[in-house]
Amino acid sequence: MTQYVPYLKGVCTRYVGSREDAKDVLQNALVRIVTNIADFKYQQEGSLQQWASRIVVNESLRFLRDKRRQDLLKLKLDVPDEEEDDDPPIEHIPPEVIHEMVSQLPTGYRTVFNLYVFEDKSHEEIASLLGISAKTSSSQLCRAKNLLAKMITAYNNKHQHPR
Fold first, then answer.
1. Could you read off the pLDDT of 17-27 as tens digits, one per residue?
2. pTM score over 0.85
3. Which of 48, 90, 95, 109 has its CA 20 to 30 A from that of 102?
4. Domain 72-163 fold
């Protein structure tokens, strides 16, 4: 199980944002994993990592709900969603920089983005998990993508990487 800790820490940090909070959430998740290991059913190679990841994601979402952060999924109705024409290129951006950009997203945007992109959840599933509407989930994802696109464009402009 210890070989999965760095991966699980990355999953947790993706959701929680703060490294300090992520350590606490990861610790709680590891306790749940050890406590519930008897419930694990081996299916194929990688199934233990997948099972542990699901626990970390659920513990991260529980943390976000329990914190009741002010910015968690507050929809500003007066700000229309903007559509980007093209995604900016990311081939010259190191993965750790992209990870840092995602971690800088507001909590609600980051949560929906992670569930949609990394956990492959539909807007209906995200809505159910977070207690929001599917339309709010879609809006949050759109805003997250737009904000990331702006960060990526700024990075590319600063580092002279052409579009």
1. 788 888 999 99
2. no
3. 48
4. Arc Repressor Mutant, subunit A (1.10.10)
